[in-house]
Amino acid sequence: xxxxxxxxxLLKQWFNIDRYTPALSNCISFSxxxxxxxxxxFPEEYRNxxxxxxxxxxxxxxxxxxxxxxxxxxxxxxxxxxxxDYSIExxxxxxxxxxxxxxxxxxxxxxxxxxxxxxxxxxxxYAVEVRPEMLKLYIALNSTKDADSIKIRFGNNKPVxxxxxxxxxxxELKEYLDKYLGVKSIKEAKHELLMNYTNRMGAPNxxxxxxxxxxxxxxxxxxxxxxxxxxxxxxxxxxxxxxxYLFAIGLINLDSKxxxxxxxxxxxxxxxxxxxxxxxxxxxxxxxxxNNEDGTRLY
Length: 299
Known about the structure:
Blueprint: H1 2-15, H2 22-25, E1 29-30, H3 34-38, H4 55-61, E2 66-67, H5 77-85, H6 93-110, H7 118-143, E3 150-152, E4 160-162, H8 168-180, H9 186-197, H10 206-223, H11 236-248, H12 260-273, H13 277-280
Antiparallel strand pairs: 1-2, 3-4
Helix pairs in contact: 1-6, 1-10, 5-11, 6-10, 7-9, 10-11, 10-12, 11-12
């Protein structure tokens, strides 16, 4: 845990990951509770702005109370070979960061997180299965304002043409999406769809791959491990390093169709559209509609 605290500022700078990141904090449990802390004396620095005990901050300064689920079937052979191939030695910043990211991503894939209740399950079902369809429908409706009609097909039946004279269905759909989707523009809808739901070239967790590709590239640049000749460009060596790292930690495989050419293209696109890791990862959390009246109905 001491090694994690040493690299945490860099993880935040290059990957937007710290102890409070939901994907990480959900994998952490503590052998002490706030009620137990109340009975002990500790500095006021462990209280948040509301005066409540900050269990995360206290625990990360007292690593003996932290419990992190660790898979018993880690296969570090590929990663260790990767470190050997690139002469990356232990007890270095780049070694610690790359090894931590492997633990982080592997725990995510194996589902080492806190159990979810029925309400949270309903929300995740909405976020993963329903919301992307709503986003696509919003984009289609608002991209075809001059269309004379809408065609609806149920299964293999003949399409039904509606809205030929009066846009009754279009108006109802727009009102519904404005209430339960809560996006304000086609650009916003496309951005959320791209970051949260687009699986390019068979890549699972596209947002996670983008996050690691961006972060590892900047890690290589800032530490001088492998630098490009020109700022904000991607060299072949950097792309190859990232490809082999993603393969070593199991995020891609031979069927993923993600190679150094895809990674260079992906990074060039990301750097063209985003200026920081915070901007890139702003939509990592699935959204619900802010206009949901009582919070119990998701769609």
